Amino acid sequence: MRIGDLVRTLDGIAPVRLAGDWDNVGLLLEGDRDVRKVLVTIDMTPAVLEEAIEADVDAVLAYHPTIFGGLKRLTSRVAHGPELLALARRGVHLYSPHTALDAVQGGINDWLLEAFAGVAGAHPIEPDAQDPTAGVGRFASIDAVRGTKVLRAIKEHLGLEHLRVAGDLDREVHTVGVCPGAGTSVFRKLRDCDLLLTGEMGHHDVLGWVARGAVVVLTEHSNTERGYLPRYARAVREAAGVDVTVSARDRDPLSIR
């Protein structure tokens, strides 16, 4: 498959027009290979680069954009420079779907809602102007459940042993808000919510939500995203007809010791 055909296929799965206007999505590095083998990861780290080289992949789909924030030079001394240079030398393509994959219907936001039972009335917190089923974050009603029980369900869905939690877990939860990554600014659009699930949130926003009676659940940034990768890989595999593998070495940079 030519890279242009793969890019069109990826845009069909998660249209780049849905990405935030601040984001940097799409084809970030164009190599010269035909695409037969693809590696999917959250971050393009040295460990993932080593994995990509060992597997001799033709393209890497890195959820987080490896080029971000006004790259002015590409050397071995800048952030992600060694990884980008190594991919370029090998003719490997690099693509990022990031917030387009969050926003699309059936994307990461909707996958996060699958942690809860009896989801009803789910809708984007910030709907897309052209497609109101897509957009930033999700808000929904769920079957009434005590906070301690819903916490167990979140851990099981995300495959995590530990979560950071604020608020009263003995209260019943009727409504939830979810946002992959960092939900601080997104959740400010909500007037009320019983439980908020995201990767990270500002300290004072956590205090504010708890004062309003909410439970705040924080997973660390990429732990709200990584569990979706097998589903994304399957969608790419079926649509593009290429060999797609999820990275075995991709990890959240933070751990609990």
**CATH overall fold name of the largest domain:** Udp-n-acetylmuramoylalanyl-d-glutamate--2,6- Diaminopimelate Ligase, Chain: A, domain 1
Please write the string of helix (H) and strand (E) elements: HEEHEHEHHEEEEHEEHEHEHE
Indicate the overall shape. globular
Radius of gyration: 19 Å
The CATH homologous superfamily name of the largest domain equals NIF3 (NGG1p interacting factor 3)-like
Task: Give me the number of helical elements.
Answer: 9
Structural class: alpha/beta
- Low-pLDDT residue intervals, each spanning 5 or more residues: none
Q: What is the CATH class of the largest domain? A: Alpha Beta
Assigned CATH architecture of the largest domain: 3-Layer(aba) Sandwich
Draw up the topology in text.
Elements: H1 3-13, E1 26-29, E2 37-41, H2 46-55, E3 59-62, H3 81-89, E4 93-96, H4 98-103, H5 108-113, E5 120-123, E6 126-127, E7 135-136, E8 138-146, H6 147-158, E9 164-166, E10 172-182, H7 184-187, E11 195-200, H8 203-211, E12 215-218, H9 229-240, E13 243-246
Parallel strand pairs: 2-3, 2-13, 3-4, 10-11, 11-12
Antiparallel strand pairs: 1-4, 5-8, 6-7, 8-10, 9-12
Key features?
2 domains, single chain, 257 residues, Udp-n-acetylmuramoylalanyl-d-glutamate--2,6- Diaminopimelate Ligase, Chain: A, domain 1, alpha/beta, 13 strands
Describe the fold and architecture.
The chain has 257 residues and is α/β, with parallel strands linked by helices. It folds into two domains: 3-100, Udp-n-acetylmuramoylalanyl-d-glutamate--2,6- Diaminopimelate Ligase, Chain: A, domain 1 (3-Layer(aba) Sandwich), CATH 3.40.1390.30; 105-224, NIF3 (NGG1p interacting factor 3)-like (Udp-n-acetylmuramoylalanyl-d-glutamate--2,6- Diaminopimelate Ligase, Chain: A, domain 1, 3-Layer(aba) Sandwich), CATH 3.40.1390.30. 31% of the residues lie in helices and 24% in strands. It has nine helices and 13 strands. It has helices at residues 3-13, 46-55, 81-89, 98-103, 108-113, 147-158, 184-187, 203-211, 229-240, and strands at 26-29, 37-41, 59-62, 93-96, 120-123, 126-127, 135-136, 138-146, 164-166, 172-182, 195-200, 215-218, 243-246. The strands form three sheets. Strands 5-8-10-11-12-9 form a six-stranded mixed sheet. Strands 1-4-3-2-13 form a five-stranded mixed sheet, sandwiched between helices. It has a two-stranded antiparallel ribbon with strand order 6-7. Helix 2 (46-55) links the parallel strand 2 and strand 3. The longest helix has 12 residues, at 147-158. The chain is globular and about 55 Å long. The relative contact order is 0.16. The mean pLDDT is 97.
